[in-house]
Write a structure and sequence with these properties.
three-stranded antiparallel β-sheet; single chain; 105 residues; alpha+beta; 2 domains
């Protein structure tokens, strides 16, 4: 079930689902299916729900929400930039930032 919630979060981050869709899945996990899901799914749902509440209450921006959900779901984002002739990729994974630089020549 946590895999399905991660997919809902990923779809939201990609713009393919609404935040209401994610909230509906969280409600399913935390209320309707609480006896049928594992602890990982419950933990993810509860943490995601907390951050969504912070966003809807105006305490954090949507960018912060998306970053937090990405991290909670264990998703990785990659940014590729070019500094003249040196392309570089930077990505975040599990709260760690990694950078890879290509030397072109």
């Amino acid at each position: 079930m946590d895999r399905l919630l991660r997919m809902f979060i990923q779809d939201y981050l990609a713009g393919n689902r609404t935040l209401a869709d994610v909230q509906g899945r969280i409600i399913d996990i935390t209320w309707d299916m609480v006896d049928e899901v594992g602890q990982d799914a419950l933990d993810l749902a509860r943490q995601a729900d907390l951050h969504i509440a912070e966003f809807t209450g105006g305490h954090i921006s949507e960018d912060v929400l998306k970053s937090t959900l990405r991290e909670l779901a264990g998703l990785t984002s990659v940014v590729i930039t070019s500094n003249g002739s040196q392309p570089a990729a930077k990505w975040r994974s599990q709260a760690q930032t990694h950078q890879l630089t290509w030397v072109c020549g």
